[in-house]
Amino acid sequence: MSARADIHRLFESGRTSYRLDEYLDAHRAEVVAERDAEIMCWLGKKAREYRATGSSQHALQADTIELMASKISRGAVRPNNTLMLPDAGFFEVGRTYTRPHHGETITFVVEAVSTSPDGRTTVAQGWRITPYTDGGWEPADSDDFTGWTDVTEAGESR
Question: Is the pTM of this model over 0.70?
Answer without folding.
Answer: no
